């Protein structure tokens, strides 16, 4: 019966030797205590080998339980799947357009989504107390497909966010006042957002909510027609010497960038991301990537929701659309409609 049971599981009964098998099957005369002990030892070894083989066979066919190797692989497989989905993002080139006074001593410093080259003289930057921001401009070849109005709203979004960000440590002064640092930013590349793909993505994200269906997570946008943005920025001291510089590039992705129906949608969204990184370079004197998150001040929060900025000089870039802009963005309204931009008189 044991042989039949083992045969069904692909195992053969293994005995220690022919002599031991004969001892186990053939009738024998009454042995002495020494031979009986030896036979018992042989039988125990044989049964032990059979039990080991049965255990191996059972484990090979038995599903692994929670806490086993299979269970610990599940998060890894999920992470791989997410990483594969995140490849649905636009690429942005790292440029050297010649807008910076120097490209020397720049080193790579990349974040999870953005790539950059930076240079900073930490002691000199941290010693500065005042800063002046020159309005951002587009290079001639940056984005011929964006209209003048769209370019203006993207460039102003850079300046407004940058002015708010550096206010955490530096006093921002007007264009006609002396400052220890002068910041200049040039947009060297701005790939437009595909408006049809953005519209389809927005409909796909809103339709379930209108139908009363609430899913466990937001629906990602279509990973096609995504925009991107590349900028070159530097801060010079009063003698015109470069004290900090950054080349920053990032493409929109299907998860973190919500589209609006505008060719400037992603460039406008990424403008604030760049300004947050470059302002941190000037506030801390070190790379903004790989650092613990900073708690924003009340002035920063107030400016972000459309309130009065900390320094009057920032009024030249207008105020954030705040809650109105957030709602407009969720509905897909173009930023050139919802953002008033800089005041006409520059004040």
Secondary structure elements and pairings:
Blueprint: H1 2-8, H2 18-25, H3 33-61, H4 69-85, E1 107-108, E2 115-120, H5 122-127, E3 130-133, E4 137-138, H6 148-166, E5 171-172, E6 181-191, H7 195-210, E7 228-236, E8 242-251, H8 265-284, H9 298-304, H10 322-330, H11 335-338
Parallel strand pairs: 3-5, 3-6, 4-6
Antiparallel strand pairs: 1-2, 2-8, 6-7, 7-8
Helix pairs in contact: 6-8
Question: Would you kindly provide a brief summary of this structure?
Answer:
The protein is α/β, with parallel strands linked by helices. The protein has helices at residues 2-8, 18-25, 33-61, 69-85, 122-127, 148-166, 195-210, 265-284, 298-304, 322-330, 335-338, and strands spanning 107-108, 115-120, 130-133, 137-138, 171-172, 181-191, 228-236, 242-251.
Quaternary structure classification: single chain
Number of helices: 11
Which percent bin holds the helix content?
40-55%
Helix- and strand-based class? alpha/beta
What this model shows, in words?
The protein is of the alpha/beta class and 347 residues long. It contains eleven helices and eight strands. It has helices at residues 2-8, 18-25, 33-61, 69-85, 122-127, 148-166, 195-210, 265-284, 298-304, 322-330, 335-338; strands at residues 107-108, 115-120, 130-133, 137-138, 171-172, 181-191, 228-236, 242-251. The termini are far apart.
């Amino acid at each position: 019966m044991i042989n039949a049971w083992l045969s069904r599981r692909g195992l053969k009964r293994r005995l220690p030797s022919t002599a031991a098998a004969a001892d186990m099957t053939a009738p024998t005369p009454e042995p002495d205590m020494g031979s009986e002990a030896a036979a018992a030892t042989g039988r125990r070894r044989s049964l032990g080998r059979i039990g080991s083989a049965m255990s191996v066979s059972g484990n090979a066919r038995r599903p692994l339980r929670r806490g086993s190797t299979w269970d610990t692989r599940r998060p890894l497989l999920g992470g791989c799947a997410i990483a594969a989905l995140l490849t649905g993002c636009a690429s942005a080139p790292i440029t050297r357009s010649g807008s910076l006074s120097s490209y020397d001593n720049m080193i790579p410093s990349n974040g999870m989504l953005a790539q950059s080259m930076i240079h900073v003289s930490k002691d000199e930057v941290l010693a500065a107390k005042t800063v002046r921001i020159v309005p951002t401009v587009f290079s001639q070849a940056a984005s011929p497909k964006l209209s003048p109005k769209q370019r203006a709203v993207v460039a102003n979004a850079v300046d407004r966010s940058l002015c708010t960000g550096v206010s955490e440590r530096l006093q921002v002064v007007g264009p006609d006042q002396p400052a220890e640092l002068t910041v200049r930013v040039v947009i060297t590349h701005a790939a437009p957002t595909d408006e049809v793909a953005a519209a389809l993505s927005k409909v796909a994200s809103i339709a379930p909510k209108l139908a009363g269906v609430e899913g466990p997570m937001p629906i990602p946008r279509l990973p096609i027609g995504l925009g991107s943005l590349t900028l070159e920025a530097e801060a010079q001291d009063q003698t015109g010497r470069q004290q900090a510089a950054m080349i920053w590039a990032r493409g929109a992705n299907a998860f973190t960038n919500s589209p609006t129906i505008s060719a400037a949608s992603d460039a406008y969204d990424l403008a604030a991301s760049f300004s947050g990184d470059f302002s941190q370079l000037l506030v801390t004197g070190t790379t903004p990537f790989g650092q613990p998150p900073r708690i924003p001040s009340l002035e920063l929060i107030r400016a972000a929701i459309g309130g009065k900025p900390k320094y009057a000089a920032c009024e030249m870039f207008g105020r954030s659309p705040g809650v109105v802009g957030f709602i407009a963005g969720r509905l897909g309204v173009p930023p050139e409609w919802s953002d008033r931009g800089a005041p006409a008189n520059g004040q």
